[in-house]
Known about the structure:
The chain folds into two domains: 13-236, P-loop containing nucleotide triphosphate hydrolases (Rossmann fold); 267-505, 3-Layer(aba) Sandwich (Rossmann fold). Helices cover 52% and strands 12% of the residues. The chain has 21 helices and ten strands. The strands form two sheets. The protein has a five-stranded parallel β-sheet with strand order 2-3-1-4-5, sandwiched between helices. Strands 7-8-6-9-10 form a five-stranded parallel β-sheet, sandwiched between helices. The radius of gyration is 27 Å and the shape is globular.
Amino acid sequence: MLEKMDLTKSLSKEEYKKKLPVLEAKLGKLQRECKELKIPVMIAFEGYGAAGKGVQIGKLIQALDPRGFEVHAVKKESEEEKLHPFLWRFWTKMPAAGRIAIYDSSWYRKVLIDRFEGKTKEEEIPAALRSICSFEEQLTDGGMALIKIFLAIDKKEQKKRFQKLLKSKETAWRVSKGDIRRNEKFEKYEAMNEEMLTRTDTDYAPWDVVEAVDLKFATAKIYSIVVHRLEEKVREVKERENVSAEAALLPGSLDRQTEKVPMESVLAKADLSLFYTKEEYKRRLKNLQKKIEKLHGELYRKRIAMVLGFEGWDAGGKGGAIKRLTEYMDPRGYVVHPTASPNDIERAHHYLWRFWNDMPKAGHVTIFDRTWYGRVMVERIEGFCTKQEWQRAYKEINDMERDLTDAGTIVIKFWLQIDKDEQERRFKARQENTEKQWKITDEDWRNREKWDQYETAVNEMLIRTSTPDAPWVVVEGNNKYYARVKVLETVADAIEKRLEEEKKRG
C-alpha cells in the first residue's frame, strides 16, 4: 500500500480555500445526524512520526461541536493499563451512541512502535493482529462507524521535519529518541507498517492512506474521507430503519427467534443424583476454603488474573456457591459483580463494553453473577436483540475470552444445573420464608414457563462457547452441598494447574 503512494501530491491555496468550507459544513451536519441516529464514531489516526497527526486532528475538530467528541492521545501504557489485556484501555475509551472518539495513535501501537522497540515480541504479533481484527469487527457489527487514517511521508521529509522541531526549545520535546531511531531505520519500520496495513485492511474496517507531505492536500483529503465514510454510515442506518419499520408491519414480525436448534443436549448428561452428606460437605468445604485462601495469595504474588462467570437456572445456587468460594479470600483481591439489565449508559455502548470495564487487573479475581452470556439467553429468548445479533455473539464472546486468556487470565464459566422440580421446590421454600421472599419474583415464575426455550438456548451456548482455555463447567446442583464443593474444587484445580505451568516456565 505504501509503495504505491505518490507523496508529491499537493493542493493550491485557492483550491484549499474553495474545498474546505464545503467539507466543514458537511461534517458538522453529519455529526448532528450521527447524534440523532445514535451512531457512535471512532476515528483512528496512525502514521509516521511528524506526519502531522496532531495538526490534522486539530483541523478536523474545528468543524465539530466540542460537546460531542473526545480526543484520546495514546502513549505508553500506564501501570494500570499494563495489568490488563492490551485492548482493555480502548474498550474503556469507547464512545457512546451518537458521540465521536478520535485517537491520536491507537490500538495499533502494539504492533508498530511497541514491536519496533521490542516490547511486543515477534511471536506475539499474529495474536495481536487477530485480536485487533476481531475488535474492529465486533465494533462495526455493533453499529460503530470506524474510520482508520494513515498519514504517510518519506524518510527524507520526516528527517527534515524532525530537524526543524529540534531547532526550537518550544518544539524539541516533541521529538523523542524513539522517533530518531525509527527514522534511522526507516525501511525496517516501514515494513512493519506495510504488514500491519495489509493484514488489517478489511471490508468492515478499511484503511485510508493519506499523502501527508503537503499539509493542505492532506487536510482536504482527510475531510473528504471522514465525510464520505459518515455519509455511507448514515445512509446505511436510515435504510436499515426503513426496512425494520416495514418488517414490523408484516405477520410474524414479533417472532422472538427462539426456534429449536437440533444438537446434543449437554444438560441432559448432568447426573443430578450426585450429593454429599452435611458432614462430608463441611469437612470438604473447610479444607477447600483454606486451600483457596492460600492460592488466592499466590495469584496476587504471581500477577495472574482470574475471571469466574456464574450462570444457571433461577434458584440454581449461584449466590450460595459464590459466598462459600469467597469466604476465606482476601476482600482486597476480588470483586463480585451482580449483572442486572443494562442501564441507559450501558445500552448506549456495545453490549460487551460494560463487562470489559469490570475485567480484573493482573493478580485480582473478578466474579460475575450472571454474565455477557445474557446475550444468547435472556436477550435471545425475550427478543431484546435480533437473531443476527445473538447468533453473531458466540464468536464475539469467544474472541473476548480469547483476548483474556492470551493475556494470561484464567477464565472459567459455571452453569449451575437443577431440574424443574427442584426449582419449584426452592421457589416455594423462598415464598414461605419471610427472610428469603425478596429472592423470588413474578419474573422468576414467568421464566419457568419458558424452560424448554431456555434449555435449547443453554445447550447451544455450552456447545459453541466452551473452549479449552475458557471452559464451561456444568455443576450438578440439585444437592447444594455437592454443587458448592464442585465449584471450589474446580477453581482450586485451575489455579494449581496454572501455578504449575508458571513454575515449569521458570
